[in-house]
Every structure is written in structure tokens, then in C-alpha cells.
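Handout for the seminar on molecular recognition.
Each group receives one record of this type.
Step one: identify the two inputs.
Step two: read the structure output and locate the region that could contact flavin mononucleotide.
Step three: write two sentences on what you found, then compare them with the reference statements printed after the record.
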Amino acid sequence: MAIPPLARPVHIGKCLAKNRFVIQPMECGDSDLRGGFSQNTRTRYENLFRGGAGMIVMESVTLQYDCRCRRHQLLLDVHDQDNRDQWEDFVREKKRRYPDTLLIVQLNHSGELADESFSRRVCVKPLPGYGGVLLEEDDIAEIIASYAEACRFLAYIGVDGVDLKFCHGYLGAQLLRPYNDRRWKYGGSFENRARFAYEMCERVRYAVPHESFLLGAKVSVYDELPGGQGHAGPDSPIIDPEESVRFCKGLEHRGVSFIIETLGSAGFGWNLMCPNRNAPDNVFRHMTAAKLLRKNLRSETTVICGGLSLLRDGTHNGMTGVDPAHGNLFYYGNTCIERGDFDMIALGRQSYADPALPAKYLSGKTDTINWCRCCPGCGTLLMNQQPTGCVVYNPPYAERYRTLKADKSMADRSS
Ligand SMILES: Cc1cc2nc3c(=O)[nH]c(=O)nc-3n(C[C@H](O)[C@H](O)[C@H](O)COP(=O)(O)O)c2cc1C
């Protein structure tokens, strides 16, 4: 019997992924008090590594602890020996036990999405309702230098690559979007707005010259903010993804070998970023955006489609007029990869619900998969600074979610 496309290995730059499943970066707000690995963090990753995906992208890691969006966000601080040791132990152990799984780390700067109740909010051009201290050119240069330094360390301890975040309204997106029409080296023209990303790639490649260390990027092809990524101008509500395609071409020209497709922003509503049953057609927008990238990028660049958890096994996904035998994760994953629409599929919320999905699919045990219900549970926990995971299949998270909802309805009643 022919091997299904999802089970086939694929080259990503100079590396090889053993199958087409990618685990999305999913922050869980469960690091210890100093941004280090808690037992919970370690257990989560152990479950994911056991789960059999070809590539695992670790959650949004901050390099600037004074400017973060989660109270318990995972930190990489190359100047702190204890933090370095924790990273080194974690990576060495995972690479020893799972040498054929690609381990990628997502690096992120929160910018205007930093939480002011415990952190410092900064911005590139104040956005109504957000704002923050205005970053200057020297600040950007320092941030770029911190990424290069972090990547040198990650390569040294055996990480396979990094995912640079240019999406979901965080700093990488804030600089890139047309709304950043401020007159400075990093604003205005496309060339200026893309400068942060491009300089960062060049500096990282210089710091880690060997190509077996993968450079990748997660990019919102468009978001839901007028003047946002993939919009036609600084205040335009018109979606025009041409610039996002141009941006990704510039990334691959600077050594990026994989792009994780995404849409939307964590700041302005979650429906586009995380399709749910109320707007199931957003799943098809993700696939269309991934295909747009696939069509325009070099064949050597791996295009990874996200936003697919809602597909499930074809049932209870809110889709009408679609036969469940076709409208499901594996059918679309296999047929789209076979047709060349994209190269891999990434699992976000589904990886909370069942970290073992890839292994279950590959061993034919699909009837044992816990399917994500795409409920608001995990997102609500994250936004309330709680340790985050699946509230359907994992009792401690379910309990926390129930308490949160009860507290909220109590507060609503008394207000
Ligand atoms: C609770 C939660 C945490 C997330 N954390 C991250 C993150 O750390 N980095 C990131 O790029 N995206 C993050 N995302 C977005 C997901 O990676 C993914 O793009 C999105 O959930 C859509 O994929 P899905 O349909 O498979 O869930 C998060 C989403 C949720 C719901």
C-alpha cells in the first residue's frame, strides 16, 4: 500500500523531518517564577516528543523578561548561568532520546502586547487601546543583537533551528504592518518595515553560519486590523496579501527554509487565528493562504499550513455541506500535500487535546484520538495568565477553567 503523504519524510533545508506533522508553538504560561522550566513544562514536552511529530516548535520564548505578555512565560537568558544550564539539560536530553525529531524554538518579543500589570509595554507606533514606550532605532538594534546571541547559544546546545515570529500582533508584526508609517529606519516603506526581520535573519545567519541550523518564520499572511499585516495601506481595511508574499520571498532569500502560515492576531480577536465552530470557513482561509505561499516561494522552502485543528475527524466542526469523510484533518492534510498546496500541517490546539495524534495516525489507531473541540477554554486560560492546556481532556485545566468562569459570572452578577 502506498505511504500516505502525511507519513512521508520531507527535507527542510539541510534537515529531514520524518513525517509531515509539525507541533505549533503553544505557550502554556507554566514556567517557574524566573522563567525557567517547571515540571509541568517538562512533562508537556515529553508528551509531545513521545507523540511522534516530525518537527516540534517550542512555544513563544521571550529574550526580554521585562517586556513579556505572560507572567510565567518561558525565558531564554544567555547571561544567566542557571537558565543556560536548564536549556542545555532539556535540549541535550530530548536530542539524546528523540534524535530523529526536529526541535525548533520560537523566539518572540511581545512589544505592545506585553502585559502592563507586571511588565513594560513598548511600541513602534501607538495603537489605540495599546500604546507603550516608543522604541527607538538603538532599541531595535539591541533586540536584533539579542536574537543573534540567543541563536548562537541554541545552535551550540543542539537545537535544530528557530522560528522567528512575525505574526499575531507581536513586535515582529507591529514593525511589519503598514500601520507602522512612522518616519524612522524601521517604518514607512515596505523596505523599512521589513528591515527588522531581514536584519535579524542576516545577523542570525552570521552568528550561526552552518546551514544545518534552520531559520524559519511564522507569518500572518493577513490579520483583522485595518492597516495590519496583509492590508493595502496604513489605515486600509482592504486585505491584500501581496506584501506578505513579497516579505516571505525576502526571508527565503536570507536563508529562511520554512514558513509557518498563520492568519490574524492574538490582540484583536481569535476567530481568524484559531478557527472555531462559529466561523468554520476560516480553516479554508488558512489553507488558501498556505497555498498562496507555496505557489510563490521556491520549491526548497517548506510551507507549513496552520489553523487546522477545527477539521477534526470531520464531525462537530460546524461545517455544513461537507461530507465528514472528506472534511477532516487527515483527508485534507493528505490531499493538499499530494496536490502540492502545502508541504506539512501544523497542530496547535489539537496538540493540547492529544499530543499523541501523529503516532496514533501513523500506527492506524485513529479511533483513539481525543479530538480538539475548539472551545474557548485554552485561550481563556492563557489570556487570564493561568497555566494553559486542554480543558476537555485534562482535569486540572478543566477545574481551573470552571473556577475562572464561576469567578467571572460572580463578578458579572455583582457589577
Ligand atoms: C492557548 C494558545 C497558545 C498559543 N501560543 C502560541 C505561541 O506561543 N506562538 C504562536 O506562534 N502561536 C501560538 N498560538 C497560536 C497557535 O500556534 C496556532 O497558530 C493557532 O492555534 C491555530 O492553529 P490550530 O487551529 O491548530 O489551533 C496559540 C494559540 C492558543 C489557543
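Reference statements: The pocket of flavin mononucleotide is lined by residues 24-27, 59-60, 106, 165, 168, 218, 262, 273-275, 306-309, 347-350, 378-379, 382, 388 (CB under 6 Å). The longest strand covers residues 55-62.
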